[in-house]
Each structure stands twice: as C-alpha cells, then as structure tokens.
Prior knowledge:
By secondary structure, this protein is an alpha/beta fold. The protein is built from 20 helices and 18 strands.
Amino acid sequence: MRRNNFNTWYPIGFVLMSLLGMLLLIPALSFGNITDRTDTLQRPGLLSYINGSGKTEPVRTLGEWQIKRRQILDSMQAAMGPLPARSGLPPMEIRYVDSVKGFGYVRYSIRFTVAKGEVLPAYLYIPVQKGKKTKLPAMLALHPTGTLGKKIVDGQSSVQNRAYARELAQRGYVVIAPDYPGFGDLIDYNFEADRYVSGTMKNIFDDMRCVDLLQSRADVDPERIGVIGHSLGGHSALFVAAFDTRLKVVVSSCGWTLMHYYFNGDTLSAQKNGGKLWPWAQERYMPLIRAKYNLDPNKVPFDFDEVIAAIAPRAFFSNSPLFDANFNVNGVEIGMKRISEVYHFLGTENALAVRYPSSKHDFPSNVRLQAYQFIDSVFDFDPMVEKHYSYLDNPQYLERVKLYATQKDQKSIVMLGNSITERGQWPEILGRADVANRGIGSDITAGYINRINYVFNLHPEICFIEGGVNDLAHYIAQDTIIHNLGILIDTLRSKKIIPVLNAVTFVTSEYKAFDPGIFNARIEKLNEAIKRLADKKKVAFINLNPKISSNELLVKKFAVKDGIHYTSTAYLVLENEIMKILAKEGI
C-alpha cells in the first residue's frame, strides 16, 4: 500500500534507478580516462565533466555522468582523504552490551568491529514482528553534534525533535545509530593516532560498515536501506550516501548549503580562526580545509550541490529551515536548482524533495513526519500503526483494578501510585491498619485518573499521589503529566479528600533503562513543575530527593539493584514525611 504521492515516479523510476544504480557500481575508468587531480582544476557545472585532456565537456550520456560522478568523489577525497579499501575486512564480531524494550521494538546497545583495531558503538533497534516474520526496510540514523552522541537520536537529550532513530523503529524500521568519532562512547577518540586523513572519512567508513551490518541481518531487506541525519548527521548522511550506493533514500535535515553561504553565526570566531569555514576544518571533520585549502570556499575542491548530485538518481529529501543560521537557505535554493537539473537529466526529478519550514536550526515534527512518509513511499512500506502509550498497554493494570474493585472497606489513608507505591507495606510502614495500597506497577498518571473510583469507594480523608516517572519513560509530555495531576487534585477535593503530591525520586547510577544523568535531569525538570502545581493548588508536597540523593543521583543504599525502587531504608524516610502531614491534618 502506498502511503502518499511523494514518489508517483516510483514504479517506473525504481526500474530506472536500479539500472542507473548498476552503472554506479561499475568502476568509472571503464567509461574513459579520468583526470587524477580534479581538485586542482576549476570545477565545471554539475552536468559537465573534465575529459582525459583536461577540457570541460557537457555530460550527454549515462557513461559520461558516471565519469562526472567519480570526479565528484575524487574531489571529496581530496579534502577528506581516501576511502580505505573495503576488501579483506575482519568479522564484525557484534557484541550485545544491553537491551531496552521500547514500544514495538527492542533497542540493543552494541559494539562491533569495523576494521582491525577499530570498534564502533551503536544502538540497534529491532522491531517486534507479530505473526509471520518478514524482511523489513532499515535506516542508518546519524546524530547531530552533541556529547551524548547516539543517545540524542533516541530522545535522551533535552533538545526536542531529534529522536528520529526511535521514531523510525516505532514505525517498523530496523535502525542502527552509531556514534560519530569524538562523541558519545567515542568521546575520547584519538584522531591523531588513527589511519584516516579526516574524522569525516573515518565516519564515512564506519557508516558503510553499519550498512554491512544491516545487510547481514536476516530480518533486513538489503535493497531497502536508507540514511537520515540532522545537522552533523545531515551532512554525514550526504557524505556516506555519495560513496555508498546501497543507500536508496537519503534524508538530510539542516545538513548543507553551498560553501559560500555557510556561516555558523559566530563572527568573532570566524575572524579569530581565519575564515567562516573554520568549523569544517576542526580535527573531527576535515583539517585539510585549513591546511591545504586555506579556508577558502573557492579552493575547497567540492561543494554540497555536487555531493547531492552524486547521490542521484536515488531519492533525496532535504529539510532546510528559513532561519537556519548555519546553513543559509539561499545557498540551498541555488543548490537545489542545480541539483534538480541532474535529477531531470537522469529522469528521476520526482525523487527529489525539499521543505523550507519557518524555523531555525531544527527538524520540526511536521517535517519529520513528511520525511518519514517520503521514506515509506520510496520503500513502498506500510508502517506500523502509530499510537500513543496507554495505561491499558500495561498487562498488570486490569489485574490490579479487578483486585481493588473487591476491596471496599473504609480507609482513612490511600496511597495512590506506581510500583514504588505498590511495593510498600503501608500498614507496617505507617503502623496503622486504616491505610490502603492503590499502587500499580508501571502505571502512568492517565491510569490513575481512570481508576480514581477505587480511591473514592474507600471514603478516605487523605490521598498521597506518587507518580510521573513512568510517564517520562514513555515520553509522555510534561504538560500532560501536570495536567493529569491537576485533574487528580481537583477530583479528590470534589469528594472532600485531601490530596498530597510527591516529587519523583531520582534514580541511581545503576539504572539501565536510560542514561541516569539525563533521566534525572528530566525528573528534576518535572519536579519543578509538580512543585509549581502544588503551590498553585495549595497542596502539600513531599520531596525526598534532598534527603536520599547526592549530586542528583539516588544514593545506592536507598534503592534496590534496579536503581529505581526503594529499599526499606527509603520507605522509612518517606514514612517520616507522611507522618508529619498526617499530624498536621489531624488524621
């Protein structure tokens, strides 16, 4: 089933693209003599090439286009260094470090060998297939600049609109998301000691090995593999796709403009570092842009319209915001006009798409969805039904609700929450029998609202509300969590029940589901919002974190081995806070 009309060309275009793709796999020398050092010559237009005599000729045939394409790759390697040979590579020896269950997929942390002495860390997302197993399309997801590396495209960053690896996995794609050298688990990468001329070429080689890994999997269709990236990941996607024709669709967000239009907005740094192209000349990118080409866009031997032209006739989608301070949209518009001429020459102009959202350096949600639909169309893929997590997805929910429906004895105190509440032996903890446990493991705040009647039927005087951490784990928006807590407060008060809010407790360094530091930062932000709600609604607020955490990590003695659930020691601290409120309210 085709999802949209992005690629109305596709049934015929796929045949053309396949034939052209076979041509791209043939060595360029079979079509004629190519000048060895095209970087020393004035670059011709995209539909012109340099013949064996060093003269510029128009591209008239597919064979001549292949010569042109090879010259573009040669020029890229003049700045990036040569692409290492890919023959005789060692086995990948994939090592699975850990796994996390997501919605419709399992995310594995892996490490695998890309070359002798070179190991690449990555996330590998495998969709859960029900019924008959089929070969799935796959995507290489490349992260933007950031110390978190691959975690950014999993949604573990505080920056929104970057979780495209996770989102594609939820749509049913096998996804691999590696770290770029110098980021993530490669933060201490030693560029001086490696065999590459540039960090860019190291990354290209790594990314091509990711494609090798995807093609080696029995659950991946080797003919339906693409690449997506934002910012650093956006131009990295272009670079690897230029060299690797196995990538059939390319999505670049905020990843390019023509060299003359590039500027990161930092005038002082440009003056200090000798020119506006200085960011490209950093150790982790292409140092030769300074050392050999003097930061001069006229001397840099390739430009981005050429890189994208080298991707043709394969499908290409560009997200190029109007107010991107790095990648000026004017350069994109000029480049796209030139690129479209190449796609027209190859008969696949409908394989080219660009969006110009009214935003800054961002990958807005509506444009991401359009990019995903573009990918779906190219691969003729009907994605998994997209849905939001529901409390009914929790297998424990209905079982516990049935139990609570049978418990109707009046209680003065109700503990409403998730597994932290459920695990508490409240009569023993509080030393009184008039307390009821209404905790359900893995429940979210929407689930609390749905089962609030099982609080009402006990006719309590007070209800302690503990929750929010599972909402965060399921990427439920903070505003939604606060809205739900507000409903709980108002509903309880309508029944003359005193509500009390609890802060979400930090996790320890042993917590595995998410990076503890990142997850605790999200918890801290949520707690600030819960405190504001408590102040606004004039309800009591319990925050154990100052008493049981250190440096924004839950102290290990207060948590069991999973890093999140309480030990008896933690429950004693909570008991003390609860007893203060009960005494104040005379309960």
